């Protein structure tokens, strides 16, 4: 049993009853408050160890209550709770002293895990992975956001098929890892997983690397048994998976060669005379928009439609909400176990910075930051002082040089004044769809959400478009 009680602050009776019943069934002692004044009085009287505090209260702001309670009770571990999930709210709550952030409706198991982690000095990303479902830890992929749940659902759905998959997303979003996951869960898992990076292969060698070659010996023509056979990626992936990373970098002649292989199901190595049958699962990735490449004439339309049977878009880290904290603490655990370092968690200030940062390098940038911290600093808590200079001071370039002081720009009038949140959201979605020429997937990419999210919104507005869905 917890040595001290847990304070629950919420003005909705059903929430108080549910949270209290869940915690009491797990042998926690609970005290409840329905407003800010009552919460302050009970906190000062009972000195709780933890507090679940709703952000919206009838007599004030829950974030202000967190800051106030932390002033009087520095050892208190507040957890912000709200039905209105947003990164901005999470950042503000953490800067006020919250150690974690939960979104209603709360799953009882998630609530208990969060409480247990908070008691042990751990938080979001450090939950026991054995207790997580596929929605939060998926073959090395981490994330509880809605957009990532849709990604996991797509991977699950497509893994067992043989259809080609086209994975798009910014650099560093995990496209190769997603391809490896699809291979590991497919019927091709017993075959090789062969990756060919089309953007780094030498132009004069890419053809040989893709289709292979038979080298001449003693000046004889190839195709003979005494030639040196060097299979290309296509043959080495036989009965397995071939990943063509950054496929849009292929030249048009090479695109034509690849299309011929897919249509014939066979490959003839350079210098060879006889076609060889091949069978493999093809996955392609691209950082650039393949449709834009087709429009610009740099990518063959017939090859694109051959490859784009299933489209999987990986969102940027900045569009995944609280996932960045979850990923950071999970990967920090792994790095510290490998490097023998003592870090256990991120401070609330570091969490706020991580949630604020734009992460142009996505997961790759985050991993480099964590590695830098683990190697150069001591734990057990990652503090702001441990971060690279460009994260401690957003106006400092990564090379440490001083950037010019930003000039003051007068505040502009808020264009959303007088509109509800639902109206703002609808305008943003409709504008994005119009800007992308009616393409729902393209609008979803621009907004940093999954296409299924937009389809649900449109259905709710009486604008069903599923029959027009394209990939």
Can you walk me through this structure?
- With 471 residues, the protein is of the alpha/beta class.
- Helices cover 41% and strands 15% of the residues.
- The protein is built from 19 helices and 20 strands.
- The strands form 7 sheets. The protein has a 5-stranded parallel β-sheet, sandwiched between helices. A 5-stranded parallel β-sheet has the order 11-14-17-10-18. A two-stranded antiparallel sheet has the order 4-5.
- Strand 8 and strand 9 (141-142) form a beta hairpin.
- The longest helix is centred in the C-terminal third of the chain and has 17 residues, at 323-339.
- It is elongated.
- The model is unreliable at 124-137, 402-414 and 466-471 (pLDDT under 50).
Looking at this protein, list some descriptive labels:
471 residues, alpha/beta, 5-stranded parallel sheet, 15% strand
Strand tally is: 20
Main β sheet profile: 5 strands, parallel
**Biggest sheet, spatial arrangement of strands:** 2-1-3-6-7
What is the rounded Rg?
A: 27 Å
Distance linking N and C termini: 52 Å
What oligomeric state do these chains adopt? single chain
Write down the overall mean pLDDT.
82
Unreliable stretches, pLDDT < 50, 5 or more residues? Answer: 124-137, 402-414, 466-471
Helix run count = 19
Tell me the β content.
5-15%
Q: What best-fitting shape do the alpha-carbon axes yield? A: elongated
Percent in helix: 40-55%
Q: Which structural class do the helices and strands define?
A: alpha/beta
Compact description:
With 471 residues, the protein is of the alpha/beta class. The chain has 19 helices and 20 strands.
